[in-house]
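Encode chain A's predicted structure.
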Amino acid sequence: MMPFDLPNELTLAWIAGFFDGDGCVAVGTNGPSKLPYLSLSVLQISYDDKCPITLEVFHKYLQGKLYQCTDTRKWMWSISGRQAAECLKKLLPYLVGKRAQAELGIQLGELGQQGKALTYDQRSERVRLGAEIKRLKRV
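Encoded structure for chain A:
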């Protein structure tokens, strides 16, 4: 039985198992890096594998981008911003090792209202959350 044939909750648990082991919760910035109050911390989650079938399941259930890396011949699935936070919400009940990173990622993704400029405090909080996610990756 393929994951496509499983009930939605079982498929999300299946995806979360892969993501918990080898997925990535990352925070990048756009804007001047020396001036964090002007840059915007952007949430991105990804998973790569040599087998595209696994990533096709990620793509079907979580959307995002699916592409083959030309330099490594691996396949990559990724999603960013608010959509990444929505994916983490779906996976959160099934995550163990990346649960803390996912919780912070959800907070980061939900900070501020879509289409409106972030305040200085919101930008500062996004930078803080990004730094905490990076710290958890080293634990």
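The longest strand covers residues 40-49.
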